[in-house]
Amino acid sequence: MKKQLLNSAIAVICLMINNWSIAQTNTFFGIDAGTSISSGTWNSFFGRNTGNNTTTGAFNTFIGGQAGFNNITGTHNTMVGINAGYDNTIGINNTFVGLGSGQFNTSGNSNTSLGTYSGYNNSTGEGNIFIGFSAGFNEAGSNKLYIESSSDNIPLIYGDFATDGVGINTKEVAGYTLSVNGKVRATEVKVYTDWADFVFEADYPLPTLAEVANHIKTKGHLTGIPSADEVAKEGIYLGKMNAKLLQKIEELTLYIIQQENRLNKQSELIEQLQQQESRLNQQVELIKRIQTKLK
Length: 295
What we know:
By secondary structure, this protein is of the alpha/beta class. It is about 35% helix and about 10% strand. Strand 9 and strand 10 form a beta hairpin. The longest helix is centred in the last third of the chain and has 57 residues, at about 240-295.
């Protein structure tokens, strides 16, 4: 046992001496760590076979058995864990932490994988962030965010940095900043949208109730309001729908005002008729009294 330790120590010392003459800014510890280095500088390799094929790569830190094993010219990479970034050859600015994280990355740049087997099969993608056990395990693209604790292709949290879209339990984020597949609970939601006060402008074309009734009869829903089938298929935009509903409420208010005006006019007319009737009754009584006196 002591002899083996002594041999290992001698091997490490010899390797360090060798590397000192090649590139004095490198630090290598472990059997066959950095054995192919030529002009690469500022590398730190710790563990058996770490950075084994690195020749001109620089500013790399590989920790763990076979971390960065196939790196050749890649620079500014940090790979921590057994087989982390194993196949990286020319990729730069990658950070892989965890057993097998970013294992099959070859030329991808600026990726961050945190967790065992995170970003495992991504080989050429760029700008990805994978967080969690097996997060983004099969993702082959670029500029993606995965936060997950399994290799599920639909992670708990998904993001697309290219479109600035984030999904929760969904990857359908095109055209949306936030997309949620499931129920959302909140104490308050604030929405900025156009409002419907234009209904109260003097030139607003308020449809007649007859026109409203005809539209309901032929279409089965109010003008400007989507049908039940359309909502089931396309959903609704809360801001726009609230504005539409307010528009209908304001139209109803105008109808009520119109109705109130009609009722007031009718009340005035009824009062006038009642006054006329009262005067007529008085005249009839007067005539009756005159007739009685004349008899």
